[in-house]
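For practice. Supply one:
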Amino acid sequence: MGNKLTVEIAYATPEKQVLLSVHPQEGATVEECIKLSAVFELFPEIDLEQQKVGIWNKTVKLNAQPRDGDRIEIYRPLIADPKAVRKRRAEAAKQSGRANRVTGGRPGANSRPQAEESKPE
């Protein structure tokens, strides 16, 4: 029988965050550690078939083996594509005049005054 590990399971919604500590046997998988915690009782909407998981902010597969002291994170699905959100925000800035319509940069950013040359007296 292997040694026991201490692993944390982290999950958060906008309303509630939990960090649960579990003590699986050495060699347990990420999925086994998650099932060992009470996270499904607190958040029945979690679906490991659809949601990604990670260890210390690095995505891993459910059959990965955590080490002692690792934090397993269950990630919520994105509700909007970050690239599409940025693109919409940039278009809105161009339309409202907060951004240059051609470059997308700040209006007048290219018209900075040049440093005046000092003339010897």
About this structure: The helical segments are 30-36, 39-42, 82-96. The chain has a mean pLDDT of 83. The chain is about 20% helix and 20% strand. The beta strands are 7-12, 17-22, 53-55, 58-60, 71-74.
